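Q: Start with the shorter request: fold the first protein.
A: Done. Sequence, then structure:
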Amino acid sequence: MARILAVDDSAEILSVLRRGLTRLGHEVTTSADGCSALNAFRREVPDLVVLDLRLPDMDGVDVCAEMREVRDVPIIMLTARDTVADKVEGLRAGADDYVVKPFAIDELAARIEAVLRRRPPGEQSIEYEDLHVDVGGHLVTRAGERLHLTPIEFRLLELLARDPGRVVPRQVMAAGAWPDDEFVEDGVIDTHVTNLRRKLEAGGRRRLVQTVRGLGFVLR
């Protein structure tokens, strides 16, 4: 099973994708525009993206390029544009494959399986020193002891743990841990990070989440 983000401005196509891919055992999240797709991409950490080129607020090529800047996840372009130039543009932006509408769900599913075989889904668990993050099960342990985190604390920790040593800006944390379009003040993020630290450091364990003044936070 893979976690798939499907992006299309057609509610009918999104419904077809959700039904068809869920039937095949995949977990499907949908977005109808580029902005919400980028937020969902940061928040959900999908294994693969099915992305329409023609969106109401952004060009799909630009969405693809922005996703590539965040992380390396397989992307399949799904669009009515069928010229060679359009295909080349999408592939150069970072797409792994290209499917033209109208499409058969079985063909798309086969292409998804082929892309995932070439690039297996991301790790379902993350290890860092004595920290273990079970992404699929939403469980966190440190030195073998289970930590009881809130959903926001878990998402913040997952963002940090997926790339230890790299600073995660507050705006990325806000987009990845809170619902779409919700404004989150820096102080709110800091409060949740403080609570997360308290749980991670219980029992005198060393601090893992460090503050980088003026930028954000880093796991190291």
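Q: Next, the second protein, separately.
A: Sequence, then structure:
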Amino acid sequence: MPEKTTLHIQELPPRRETRKDEDFETKIVVVNGDCLEEAIRLRNEGFNPAVLNMASSRRPGGGYLSGAGAQEENLFRRTNYVQHLADPDKEFDPKRKWKYRIPEFSCIYSRNVFIIRASEAEGYAFLPDPVPMSFLALSAYSQPPLTKNNQRLIPEMAEKTKQKIRGMLATGLWHGQDSLVLSALGCGAFRNPPRHMAQLFKEVLAEEEFVNRYKHISFAIFDDHNARGEGNYRPFFEVFAEPS
């Protein structure tokens, strides 16, 4: 049965202090690969990761029932995530007081979602054993207004996007995650510019509230049919390779 799915609305959760006996510098990597495979790898190395679900704000799972193939749909086909986010009859979580929708600066945290299938490239084969994982559902802006060269969000949308990222990062910390598997938020069908999105992530991660709060952050990105131009992996890799 689903356990611990929480909607965090419009505000940052209270800060949780890092344990005083811990001293680390966040390792940030950009990998050209599958987000669930990366999350399982981190878990096997002893981390406690949460995976970013680049979610639809109104339809849990996006178009997973109609054959759509973006990241969220892939997650739903390989896990029991549907039981955590789509529960209109309260069959799985009778105490839930909210219906699915992700407000503008909110995210949904889910714990103990079970990964049960391998990647699409492996034919969605069943895994030998289910792997429990935490998820953070966050919705990007869809086709936001851009500057004249279409390379950057207009300033207002850039700041709003940073606020979304802050809420997601704070929620993960509040729930005790020590690592994250992120991706190119909104850079596929939602048409956010990937290089600018990478820069926004880098700026927020450098803020005092978040610097060195996570032990490890992976951006797991591969260029599917929704990627455009130079793709999404290369811009993120180059932005995070630059000295801060």
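Q: Describe the second briefly.
A: The longest strand covers residues 126-138. Helices lie at 35-44, 71-78, 81-85, 155-174, 194-205, 233-241.
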